[in-house]
Design goal:
This protein is an all-alpha fold. The protein has one domain. The chain is built from four helices and no strands. The radius of gyration is 14 Å and the shape is globular.
Length: 75
């Protein structure tokens, strides 16, 4: 039987691997909470996009190509 991690742990692992969350240097005032909210929104948009490309590659394509980024935001 395969062991499945709880959702919270999978999200943390995904944010750490895709966005390098543990290496983030944002630590003052409300910036960490705001930055985390933006990362969660970006993760949800990238995950919602159909396709067999990895989440990390989708993020890199969205950073380089305005057309793909617009398609992610438009849904």
């Amino acid at each position: 039987m395969r062991f499945l991690r709880p959702t919270r742990h999978r999200l943390h692992w995904c944010l750490d691997m895709i966005f390098r969350n543990d290496e983030c240097r944002v630590r003052t005032d409300h910036a960490p909470a705001n930055f985390t909210t933006i990362k969660h929104m970006a993760h949800n948009l990238i995950r919602k996009n159909p396709g067999k490309v990895s989440l990390r590659l989708k993020r890199k394509i969205a950073a380089c190509g305005d057309n793909f980024l617009a398609s992610l935001i438009a849904g």
